[in-house]
Amino acid sequence: MVRIRAEERADGCRYILCIKGKGTLVREEIETPISEEVFERIAALLGAPLIEKDYRAYRLPDGHKLEVSLVDGGQPGAFFYAEVEFESEQEARAFDPPDFLGRELTELPGSSMSDYWNGRLTRFRG
Do strands 29-34 and 53-59 pair parallel, antiparallel, or not at all (unpaired)? Predict the structure, then answer.
């Protein structure tokens, strides 16, 4: 899966090309900065609107970073998406998420951002 994103930051906007390998819990990801011009050219080739994410990051009591995004806010199908990054598969499998995160969906078919992009996202309630 190839993705592009524009990250609004206090010091300006960064544009990123991201290539993600197959997998759910574990996968290879390569990210590289691109220019605004290249970002706009790629966006024009997509033939579909970009997914909007309002991104926030929080520190969990155990020290992990929780990344939370409101996806397509203001749209009829808007939803929140949360993830925690880990250094290893073993660390990920040992993670005991706080109750407020609800049900674990990482390896559940139909629940990935890739599936959302392809219009197949299934809704789940924690």
Answer: unpaired
Whether the model clears a pTM of 0.85, i.e. scores above it, the answer is: no
Q: Which contacts qualify for 32-38: CB closer than 8 Å, 24 or more apart? A: 34/4
* Residue in the block written with tokens 């544009």: 15
User: What is the DSSP code (8-state) at residue 87?
Assistant: S
Question: Six-digit token pair at 25?
Answer: 């819990």
Instruction: Please give the full DSSP string across 17-85, using - where no structure is assigned.
Output: EEEE-S-SSS--EEEEEE-HHHHHHHHHHH-SPPPPEEEEEEE-TTSPEEEEEEETTTSTT-EEEEEE-
33 close to 41: Cβ distance less than 8 angstroms: no
Tokens of 38: 């290249």
Q: Which tens digits make up the pLDDT trace of 50-104?
A: 888 899 999 999 899 999 999 999 988 888 989 998 989 999 999 988 888 888 8
In order of their start, the domains of the chain are 1-47 (no CATH), 51-126 (2.40.320.10)
- Taking the CA atoms of 59, 85, 92 and 126 in sequence, report the sign of the dihedral they define: positive
